[in-house]
Design goal:
single chain; 201 residues; mainly alpha; Serine Threonine Protein Phosphatase 5, Tetratricopeptide repeat; 2 domains; 12 helices; 53% helix; 0% strand
Length: 201
């Protein structure tokens, strides 16, 4: 990596927008620079919530969807970390919603598992993301939301949203267990009731 590219990434990490712009104007190929974890400048800015820099980097053409060593990109990072502003920015910029996490989930999957209600609601109501996508473990967003986190109000809301906006209440895991069975087995009685009300068996 050239010195100019290194300096560009350093400016991004420190939120020095003017310096970053200077290095870009000297050598426009810096938009392809990545750090030792294969993070683009856009990913670095996104992780640090440097929203103005995110907008600038989108404008100059840094790849929206490039994924790092952990399969993070700005959209997936925002979904996982409940950063609705970042998620909206990336969706509006045209991010690929079919990019997957290292566990094979789309952005909705970890957002649902973590109870990120605002992100889940936005994705389900404002995008065409697939609510029935299964990850490498054979789990849907509904299964993760119903079983992995708990039975609190945020998880209940996520489950309600998923079922209201197209999640199949009876898509089974690799062992043939339905979301209702799995939630019941976990003792998540409130979530189990919601699934049952939406036709879960």
């Amino acid at each position: 990596m050239s010195q100019n590219a290194q300096d560009f990434l350093a400016a991004i990490k420190n939120n020095y927008a003017e310096e970053a712009s200077k290095y870009y104007l000297q050598d426009r190929s810096v938009i392809f620079a990545k750090d030792d974890q294969k993070r683009t400048a856009l990913q670095i800015a996104a992780m640090n919530q440097y929203y103005d820099l995110v907008q600038y980097l989108i404008a100059i053409g840094v790849d929206l969807d490039e994924q790092d060593n952990m399969c993070f990109n700005p959209f997936l990072w925002g979904c996982i970390h409940n950063d609705l502003k970042l998620v909206k920015t990336m969706v509006e910029a045209g991010a690929d919603l079919e990019r997957l996490t290292r566990f094979g989930g789309n952005g909705l999957t970890p957002a649902s598992e973590k109870g990120n209600v605002e992100v889940v609601e936005y994705l389900l109501t404002q995008t065409d993301i697939n609510p029935n996508h299964t990850n490498y473990l054979g789990w849907t967003a509904l299964i993760e939301a119903a079983t992995l986190k708990g039975d609190d109000e945020r998880q209940q809301k996520v489950v309600e949203l998923l079922l209201t906006y197209g999640a199949d209440p009876n898509m089974v895991d690799p062992y043939g267990k339905t979301p209702l069975t799995l939630a019941t087995d976990k003792g998540h009685t409130n979530i189990a009731k919601i699934i049952a009300l939406h036709g879960g068996i």
